[in-house]
Write a structure and sequence with these properties.
The complex is a heterodimer of chains A (229) and B (73).
Chain A lengths: L4 H19 L18 H25 L2 H32 L7 H9 L2 H22 L3 H29 L20 H32 L5
Helix pairs in contact in A: 1-7, 2-3, 2-6, 2-7, 3-5, 3-6, 3-7, 5-6
Chain B lengths: L1 H23 L3 H7 L4 H34 L1
The chains are: A mainly alpha (229), B mainly alpha (73).
Chain lengths: 229, 73
């Protein structure tokens, strides 16, 4: 078995992200405390999601240009793992928010209503639900060529919808979520140097792990569909 | 007879445990795992999960590779 260099890179970077992410010094901020280390895990999920969705839409466009069935398989696999990463990002964010945003004097369900009204959370949920519709659409069309074509077009629409739902609208509305101005976590002025040396490798590591899972999904699908490829 | 044996056993085990806490204090590894609010325990737990995940990924990778090889033949 030959392992590609980028899979080994993913292992190395993830090991560094976890050990360094938990042990290296971080800035001390009120309210956040040690939970600031979640930046290396929660935010990386969203980065990985965005990059995997970008791959997915590229393969969808490639399918529409060539009608080659293997691009459809790739687009589907990338959207699958992208959505998986998005769900992980959403649930880790929910845990993080319940210990930093919620008022400890109130019962959890009292804060829940206001937390769930956060524009960033609603936007992310919308984006994920649109991708959910993509999977529903796929499974509802029996004819293979039609399924590939219609879902490729819908995938482009879903990708376009990511921009208003997770990039634009949340920035126009007040929110507790950081990153109101500029690009959260990418802006060189709002992220500490001590965190950057772990954060960027962590982003690459988690994205490559997502790509690895996708790679295995694609190859499984290629074997399953070997008769028509 | 049985109860007496059990009581005796528990006593022996209990004495062992206190002996352990006394002797462990001097070992460096044990000190590391118990320092800084025991954060290293968290590192060990998360590292175990990561190792498990990677081992699983490598296993699936191997299976797929053999399948691909069989198909080419």
């Amino acid at each position: 078995m030959k392992i590609s260099w980028w899979k080994i890179l993913s292992i190395v970077l993830l090991a560094y992200a976890i050990v360094g992410g938990l042990l290296l010094p971080v800035p001390e901020l009120p309210q956040l405390g040690e939970t600031i280390r979640n930046l290396y895990f929660h935010v990386c999920m969203w980065f990985a999601m965005m990059i995997l969705y970008t791959f997915s839409v590229v393969y969808s466009i490639k399918y529409l240009r060539t009608s080659s069935f293997k691009f459809d398989i790739k687009a589907k696999a990338y959207a699958d793992v992208g959505t998986f990463m998005g769900l992980l990002g959403y649930s880790t964010g929910a845990i993080w928010a319940s210990y930093t945003w919620a008022d400890p004097n109130n019962p959890a369900y009292a804060s829940f209503g206001s937390i769930m009204r956060e524009p960033k959370l609603i936007g992310a949920a919308m984006a994920l639900l649109i991708y959910g519709a993509y999977f529903v659409l796929r499974s509802s069309i029996i004819d293979m060529d039609q399924r590939a074509r219609v879902s490729a077009v819908f995938n482009i629409f879903s990708y376009a919808m990511l921009f208003p739902s997770i990039w634009i609208i949340p920035r126009l509305l007040p929110s507790l979520h950081p990153g109101q101005e500029g690009n959260p976590a990418l802006n060189f002025n709002d992220i500490d140097l001590r965190m950057r040396i772990v954060f960027y490798p962590a982003v690459i590591g988690w994205t490559l792990m997502g790509a690895w899972i996708t790679n295995i999904k694609i190859r499984t699908e290629m074997i399953r569909e070997k008769n028509i490829l | 007879m049985k109860t007496k044996l059990l009581v005796f056993l528990f006593l022996v085990i209990g004495s062992n445990l206190t002996a352990q806490t006394n002797s462990i204090k001097n070992e460096t590894m044990a000190d590391l795992m118990r320092s800084n609010g025991k954060i290293y325990v968290v590192v060990a737990v998360v590292a175990t999960i990561l190792i498990g995940l990677i081992a699983y990924m490598l296993r699936v990778e191997k299976k797929i590779s053999t399948l691909e090889k069989d198909l080419k033949k």
